[in-house]
Amino acid sequence: MTRAPSQWQHRELRGGLQLALQHRSTPELLAARLWIAGGSSLDQRGARGAHQLLAGLLTRGCAQHSAEALADLVEGAGAALRAEAIEDALVISLKCASSDAAQLLPLLLEMVAQPRLEADQLDIERQLNLQSLQRLKEDPFQLCHEALRQQLYGTGPYGHDPLGVEGELSAIQRADLQTLSQDLGRSGAAMVLCGVIPPGTAELLEDHLRLSPWSSAAAGTPLALDHPAAAPGLALHAEDTEQVVLMLGCRVPPLGDRDNLPLRLLQAHLGLGMSSRLFLVMREERGLAYDVGVHMPARRGPTPFIWHLSSTVDRAGEATSVLLDEWQRLLETPLTPEQLALAKAKYRGQEAMGRQTCSQIADRQALLLGFGLGDDAIAEALERIDALDADALLAVARSHLNAPSLSLCGPAEGLKAAEQAYRSHPLMSARP
Amino acid sequence: MGFVLPAAPPAGAITAEAPTTETLSSGSQVVSLELPEAPLICIDLWCKAGSAFESPSENGLAHFLEHMVFKGSERQAAGEFDLNIEALGGSSNAATGFDDVHYHVLVPPEAAAEATELLLDLVLQPRLSGDDFDLERGVVLEELAQSQDQPDELALQTLLQVACNAHPYGRAILGEEAQLLAHTPAAMRRFQQRRYRGAHCVLSLCGALGQARLEPLLAALQHSPLNALEPTGTEPEPAALELTPGLHRRSFARLESARLLMAWSLPPAADRGALAALDLATSLLAEGRRSRLVERLREQLRLVESIDLDLQVLEFGSLALLEAVCDPADIEQVRQEVHAVLEQAIAATPAEQELSRGLSLVCNGYRFGLESAAGVAGVLGNSALWGRPLDLSEPLALLQAVDRGALERAFEQLDPAKACVLEAMPA
Fold first, then answer.
1. What is the mean pLDDT of residues A257-283?
2. Maximum CA pair distance of chain A?
3. How is chain B split into domains, by residue range?
4. HSE on the CB side for B47, CA within 13 Å?
5. Which of B35, B181, B257, B289 would you mutate first to test chain A, the one with the most A CBs within 10 A?
6. Which of B118, B135, B146, B304 to mutate to test the interface with A (most CBs of A within 10 A)?
7. Are A138 and B151 in contact (CB < 8 Å)?
8. What is the reported pLDDT for A6?
9. How does pLDDT run across B120-141, given as a tens digit for each residue?
10. Per DSSP, what are the bridge partners of residue B261?
C-alpha cells in the first residue's frame, strides 16, 4: 500500500511570510523553497537580466557571511543551494540533510533581508551570466526558441530570457540591484518545506524574523503587468546545422484560468509520452524527428503553448507541412473518446509523477502559493477533468489556438523549403 | 589508518527495509525493495548489452536495438506497449550506455503486475521486423543529426575517440551514419540473441509493492520470458581500457566558447574502494564554489564560465572527464592553471575541514539520488547486474573507509601528465 503523505500545514510568520510544511518520513532530508513573486517579468527595459543577476548575488554573501563563508556553510553541510529568476518569481532552493536544517534554513531569510551585494561578487556573477548567454548561442533549439519568444511576447515582461540581454546586463549597477533587493517580497512571498522537518523549525524561523525582520506581502497577490499583444507570423534564423529546428506556438491563458485545464489535456494528448499524437505522427509514422513534444510551462500571465521538433534539412518542408496539418486538425476535429480517455489518464498520471521527491513537491506547492492557488487546486483539477468532453476541448482550441507563430532555425536550404510549406498551407491562407 | 571525519554523515541504513533478491533458473536475477511512500512503482530491466559489446561493424546496434524494442513483439503491436502503460497513468523509457542498457517503467502500484508482464514481453521477445527497421533507422539518424548540432557533444565524442583508441568506449553509442545505414535486422537479431541472455539480465522492482502484490508477481516471473532466456555463452569480454595521454587541438563549427577537455583512465567499477576515494577526490577538486578548481579558475582568476570533473564508473575501466568552458584566448592559461591545481593536490593532502566538506557533499549527493523509486531501482538493478553488493549503505561505508593513502593514490591517478587533453576551439 502506498502510504499517503501528510497534508500541508500553513502559518503566517512575522512580517507576513507565508510558511507551508509537509512532513514525509523518508529519507532524512529536507527540501525548501523561498518563492518571491516577480522574477524576470519585473526586469526594467534597459536592465533586462537584473533579477537573475540579483538571484545569483544572493548566494554570494549575506549578513555576516562573506561569499566564501556562505559557501563553506552550505557545502560543508553537503547541501545544495541555488537561487534563480524565472519569469514569475525569484526562487531560492535548498536541499539538505534534515539534521542541518536549523543551521541552514535561516540563511534563506538572511539572503533576502541582508544581501551583501559586494562589487567584486557582482563582477563575477555578471561575467558568468554574459558567458552563459554567449554559450547558449551554440544550441539551435535555444536560438529558435528565442525567436519565437520575440514573436509571442515582443518587448513585454516575458519577452526576454531571464538571464537577460547582453548589452543591458553590462550596464546594470550595484545600486540598481540594491533597489531591487529592497523590493523583494513586496509582490508576495512564501516559504515551503517538505521532508523530515525537525520539530521547532517554524519557531526557529519566527525567532529569526523577530531579530532580523523581513516584510513580505501575501503570496499570490495579483501583479499588474502589461503584456503587449502577440504578432503572429514566421521567424527565420539561418544557421549552419544538420537539422532545421521547428517551433510552432502561441499564447494561451495562464494556470489559474478555467481554459488552462482543457489546454493541459490537449498538451497531454499531443505531446506527453510515446503514445501522444505528435510522437505517433511525426516520429512513428513518418520518421521525421527523434524528439517531439509540447512545451507549456506554468505561468501567471499569457502562457506559451509550443510544439517543437527538429528534422533533417531535406525533410524540413515535409515536417513543416505535417506539423501545420496537425495544428489545423486540432482546430477542426474533436478528440475521439479513446484519445480523450488517454489524455485524462496521462494528466492523472502526471500528478503522481510530480510527487516522487521532496523537491518536486516543494516546487509544486511554491508555485501554487505563488500563483494564488490553494492546496486543493490539484484535487479540484483532477475532479474537473472528468466533466470535460471533446467538444469542450475543441471549443477551447478554437478560442485560443487560432493564430500560431512559426519559428525556424537551420540551413538556408531547409528554411526555404519550410517557408514554402508554411506560406502555402491552408492554415496560413485562412488567416485574415 | 582512516581519517577522523567529524562532520561526515553516518553510514546508517538508507531505507527502512533491505532489498531482497531471487535468482531464476534462467540465471536472471530479480531484486525488489519496498518503498512505502513512493507514489509509483519503478520496474527497471537491466541487461549487459551496451555498446561495449558490439564488434566494430556492429557500432550503433545496441542503441538502435533499444529503439526497435519499442516497435513491438509478437504479442504487442508497435506502440501498443506505450499506449497500455500510459493509459495506466505510467511512463516508460530506456537508455543505452557503454556497458549496459535498461528499460524502465513507472506505474501506479496497482498496475505493477501488468506492466511487468508487458515490459518483459516487449524487451525480451522483440519482433524486429524489416519495415519497422527502415523507419526507425530514420529516427536514429535524426537523433544522430540532433546530437551533431550540439558542438559540445561533438567535442566530447572527439576526446573519447582520441583518448580510447580502438577501445569500444571510444566509439559513439549512437554509431555513425554509414554504419547505421549498413545495419540489417538479421545482424540486430544476432546481437540481441547473443547479449539478452539469462545471467545478463536483472529485473529491479521498487516502490510500494506490499507482500500482497509482490508474491504473486514474483511467482508469475517463473513463467515469464525472463525465465525462458538462454544461458549465457562464452563470449569474450571487452579489453581493459588503456587511455593514451597527449594534447590535441581541434576546431568545431558553431562553438561559441572554447572547451578544455581532459580524460583520465581509472580503475574499473569492480574496484569500489579505489573509486570511492576518486569520488571524494573529484568532489574536492570540482564540486561547489569552494572546491579547488572552481575556486581557483572561476572565482579567483575568473578564467572559466564553468569547470566540471565527473567520474564515469565503467566496467572495463572508469574515466574521469574534465570540462572547462572559457574564452578561446585563455585556453592555454586555463590548461596551465588546471595542471597547477592538480599537481598541488598530489603534493599536499587536504586539511580535515576540506575533507569533511567533500565527504558531506559526496554522501549527501548519493542519498539525495535515492529519493525516488526510479533512483533506487536504478542503483539496485545496476549493482545486481554487475555482481556488486545490494546494500544501499555500502557506498557510504566505503567512503568512510577512505584513508589518506587511498586519497593520495586517487589524486595521483588524476596527474595531468596521465591525461588525454583536447582543446576544442571555435572554428
1. 97
2. 67
3. 20-228, 246-426
4. 30
5. B289
6. B146
7. yes
8. 62
9. 999 999 999 988 999 999 999 9
10. B323, B422
Contact A171, A43 (CB under 8 A): no
Instruction: Return the CATH number of A234-429, one of 3.40.630.30, 3.30.830.10, 3.40.718.10, 3.30.565.10.
Output: 3.30.830.10
Reported ipTM exceeds the 0.90 cut:
yes
Instruction: Domain A9-211: give its CATH code.
Output: 3.30.830.10
Q: Taking CA atoms, what residue in B is nearest to A410?
A: B149
From chain B, the residues in CB contact with A26 under 8 A are 15-16, 35-37
Question: How far from A238 is each of A23, A33, A320, CA to CA, in Å?
Answer: 51, 40, 16
| Residue A223 banded pLDDT, cuts 50, 70, 90 | confident
Residue A302 has pLDDT above 80, yes or no: yes
Residue B254 has what pLDDT?
96
Record the pTM: 0.95
Q: Any idea which residue has 558531506 for its cell?
A: B360
Residue A115 DSSP symbol: B
Contact B367 A97 (CB under 8 A): yes
Distance between A224 CA and the closest CA of chain B, angstroms: 36
H-run or E-run covering B47: strand B41-47
Out of 3.90.1150.10, 3.30.830.10, 3.90.78.10, 3.30.470.30, the CATH code matching B246-426 is 3.30.830.10
Rounded Cα distance, A421 and A415, in Å: 10
Read off the pLDDT of each residue in A400-418 and give the average, rounded to a whole number: 97
Say if the Cβ atoms of A29 and B253 lie within 8 Å: no
Tell me the three state secondary structure of residue A226. Answer: coil
